[in-house]
Amino acid sequence: MSLSLTSELVSLPGIGPARARQLRQHGLFTVADVLWYLPYRYEDRSNPTPIGSLTVPDVAVTVVGEVCDVRERRARTRNLHLVEALVQDHTGAIPVVWFNQPYVAKSLKPGTRLWLYGTVRLAKSGWGLQLVSPEWEVEEDKEPLHLGRVVPVYRRLGPLGGRFLRSLAARILQRVDIGPSLLDEVLPPGYPPLAQAFARVHFPELTGGQDEATRLWQELARRTSPFHRRLALEEFAGLALVLEKTRAARERIPAPVCQVSDRERAWARAMLPFPLTAAQKRAVAEIVADLQKPTPMARLLQGDVGSGKTVVAALACLVVLASGYQVAFLAPTEVLAQQHFATLSRLFSPTPFPVLVLTGSMFAAEKAEVREVLAQGQPALVVGTHALLEETVAFPRLGMAVVDEQHRFGTSQRQKLVEKGASPHLLVMTATPIPRSLALSLYGDLEVSVLDELPPGRKPVRTVIRERDALPRLLDFIRREVAEGGRVYWVFPVIEESEALSLKALKAHERALKRLLPEIPCGTVHGRMAAADRDRVMRAFAAGEVSVLFATTVIEVGVDVPEASLMVIENPERFGLAQLHQLRGRVGRGRRRSFCVLLLGENVSPEARKRLEFFAATNDGFAVAEEDFRLRGPGEFTGLRQWGRPEFRAASFFVHQQELELARRLVRTLFSQGRQQELERGLLLPPSLGQEIPPA
Ligand code: ADP
Ligand code: MG
């Protein structure tokens, strides 16, 4: 009987209704589900060791031999059932014992040849070695499954053990007709066909010479074998298909077409307080080209903290405003909204375009006024928080939405904004410095512009790790910095269990520190403050009336005070690396050389310390991001989960970047050949991913 990919598992011989139910409970319904349930590691049980050469305990070995004696007994002391056997080959014999597996005795008859895999232990008697509860398989004519080869190891699924799952996979692979995948036709050399990839990812064979076998063995462990890469390619092609369809759908929508003339160029020159960096020029050119097209832009502007994303966005806004449309500029916090409002008001003062602000904490009358201006449909730039998304705010001529620090925004919020206008252009800014190929996939259907260059004159921030006992010297340093016109952020972590508690800690700390720095004007900001109070303190800090700012991570993103030259971070071990990098990005923005002091808490683990040492040694946002990514995985990394990305079975954004790019290329080519429907039918995806593909 031959199986198809969609055959239900219950139709397999040997799978009764009870087993089928257990399998279903763990998400395995069909043959394809089992094929996509991949081994998480492999054991090399291919080379039997001669029994006579076993001399040291505590190593995992494979042996092949003949059973020469089997007996069962009960241990007197505990309630244990033992099967004891002696297994020998032509070099020697070794005792084998199984605990509480009485059925073993029934299968082992003297004279049976066995493969055994297990760990050699020193016998309880202290005399000689024995094998304890090894895995075993009777040597038969058919190909061995559990032993005598490289063996796949599966995570058990409740009552379904690895051995059962292994035989299930083997039985399916013997009968299934996988057929060619569409990608098989267009694959570059080096990738096996899909059917072979499935067969070998479950049951790899170390053929060829020793070197070749060693290499494949290592690749299997790293999930970079040709079989893993082929499966990753299939999955990434599924992702690329979703993205390509989204893009195609977007390109069918008409969007406001913007124009650029000498008038806009003159305004732009008047707005800019400095020449743009080459990276900024490139990004502006890419954005403006998008804005001139009749389809909505969807672009990610990605640049490390301090790379100057704001002016790039401002120039994009200018083009849209000058073309007669409105712009909504969304910030994740009130502090940031206020700051962008201040910056943008300043930038746009040489132009005729009004800049407005709308946040949740404003008075109802103020809000109503802004809403009224917007409702008239005149070109205007409005900066705001999520209050901008409220239904009562109408944008009759919304031409573009700018979203700052996008990782704080969910898909639905983005969608809401898009729904406000007919189909506005979308510019998303993020400081999360991710490798370009990752950005392409993490942000899905967005095109990417990268600011890979900092404005001139920046000096790298020097980061040091200090223990508590360094406090007196740190305070001296602060006095000197402030005397010379520098300003200081002092950041406290929010304790997740209790915001109230961490606020209390912040207050106590602040009082203590203020006593230690009586001559220095200090201020405090945190998330629980009224926005107006917070804003007042921030302004005082920006103006230099406050020199030391105690803060929670509300200052993490976007805050821009060029005079700030020192950042002290309390309990840095409680922050993720990416977050530390964001915080550190608040200093080093002006002419002063800047410092970041990581003030360790008590009992910091060696791993945490190593992590911080890595961070202190580099200012490179990409390196930090990559390390963060490696330590925490992509899910934690950018709020990927809120974007509802599927879980891949073989593919990893980190390990398979080459496949990711290849998949996107192949899918684009197939699309341009008008073969998307064929592609959609022809991909063999794991169920979670298959369901993600939206209808055409
Ligand atoms: P981010 O990319 O982190 O949002 P900002 O837009 O806040 O960075 O810019 C950081 C600082 O660099 C701001 O003070 C800004 O005025 C300044 N800046 C931006 N572009 C340039 C440039 N081309 N030359 C000099 N300074 C610049
Ligand atoms: Mg910014």
Q: What structural keywords apply?
A:
696 residues; alpha/beta; DNA polymerase, domain 1; OB fold (Dihydrolipoamide Acetyltransferase, E2P); 5 domains; seven-stranded parallel β-sheet; six-stranded parallel β-sheet; 24 helices; 21 strands; 40% helix; globular; disordered C terminus; binds adenosine-5'-diphosphate; binds magnesium ion; DNA damage; ATP-binding; RecG_wedge; nucleotide-binding; NA-bd_OB-fold
Question: Can you walk me through this structure?
Answer:
The protein is of the alpha/beta class and about 700 residues long. The C terminus is likely disordered. The strands form 4 sheets. Strands 11-12-10-13-14-9-15 form a 7-stranded parallel beta sheet, sandwiched between helices. Strands 16-21-20-17-19-18 form a 6-stranded parallel beta sheet, with helices on both faces. Strands 2-3-4-6-5 form a 5-stranded mixed beta barrel. The protein is globular. The chain folds into 5 domains: about 70 residues, DNA polymerase, domain 1 (Orthogonal Bundle); about 100 residues, Nucleic acid-binding proteins (OB fold (Dihydrolipoamide Acetyltransferase, E2P)); about 70 residues, no CATH class; about 190 residues, P-loop containing nucleotide triphosphate hydrolases (Rossmann fold); about 180 residues, 3-Layer(aba) Sandwich (Rossmann fold). The chain is built from 24 helices and 21 strands. The longest helix is centred in the middle third of the chain and has 26 residues. The structure holds adenosine-5'-diphosphate and magnesium ion. The site of adenosine-5'-diphosphate (ADP) has 18 residues, from helix 11. The site of magnesium ion has 3 residues, from helix 11. GO terms for molecular function: ATP binding; DNA binding; DNA helicase activity; hydrolase activity. Keywords: ATP-binding, DNA damage, DNA repair, DNA-binding, Helicase, Hydrolase, Nucleotide-binding. InterPro entries: DEAD/DEAH_box_helicase_dom, Helicase_ATP-bd, Helicase_C-like, NA-bd_OB-fold, P-loop_NTPase, RecG/Mfd, RecG_wedge.
